[in-house]
Amino acid sequence: MNRLYLFFHKTGSPPWFYKYSGYLIPWLWAGFLLLTAIGLYLGLLVAPADYQQGESVRIMYLHVPAAWMSMMIYGLMAIWGFIALVWRIRIMEVLIISSAPIGAAFTLIALVSGSLWGRPTWGTYWVWDARLTSELVLLFLYFGVIALYNSFDEPRKAARAASLLSIVGAINLPIIHFSVLWWNTLHQGSSIGTSGNSIHPSMLWPLLYMAVAFKLYYGANLLSRARLRLLTQDHRKRWVQDLLTKESS
Predict the structure, then answer these.
(1) Half-sphere exposure of 233 (CA within 13 A, CB side)
(2) Which of 118, 168, 175, 197 has the maximal Cβ count within 10 Å?
(3) pTM over 0.90
(4) What is 26-188+200-231's CATH number, 3.30.70, 3.10.490, 1.20.120, 3.40.50?
(5) Spatial CB neighbours of 203, under 8 Å, sequence gap ≥ 6
(6) Average pLDDT over residues 28-44
(7) pLDDT digit string (tens) for 52-65?
(8) 182-197, pLDDT tens digit by residue?
(9) What gap in Å lies between CA 142 and CA 202, rounded to an integer?
């Protein structure tokens, strides 16, 4: 228990976080590039076209992982927001605001790719479908977190406000997930679940490769953004001055 508490305490230390996150970033980028190459090769060249949707089904390998990431990132922001408000750990605050632009980008990708997929499938780029609408609300929540954070001059106050909005906005996540069950919607139900998969393995594997690749991209991008934000916030502190002196020597 003491070791777990010590680890939890260390992760809240900016110098410790900056140092050890730097070791992970190159591996995360390398894993992202490798899995993306494999996923795109399998999805675009090996996996068969759908018997109903034809070649347009290949948009799935971008759309579905991006949609998963949009919800996962906001869920993490809500968890980190709770930790930041209760235990006042600044690293959690930095992770929240560093995650928001990445989550917004994934949400936008999910919406645009979904619209492109919807045109040949539904005959239109956009309908006010329950899942589409709730995903659009998620994009506005990301924008809200970013705008709220930038409306404060003091970073800690800004982070607390952003943390609170992240927690409140998390109510939208189950709405997105269960929208296909709660309302009449053009979206089909989940093809992947604990009770079994209705998707063929030739389509499932490239989808999973892309899902993991996107997670590695998120990790690499998040850590890079968080490290830069820490340097900006702590540029007058001793550990940053020592770091700059060491790198310049």
Answers:
(1) 21
(2) 118
(3) yes
(4) 1.20.120
(5) 43, 47, 48, 57, 60
(6) 98
(7) 788 989 999 999 99
(8) 665 656 555 565 445 5
(9) 34
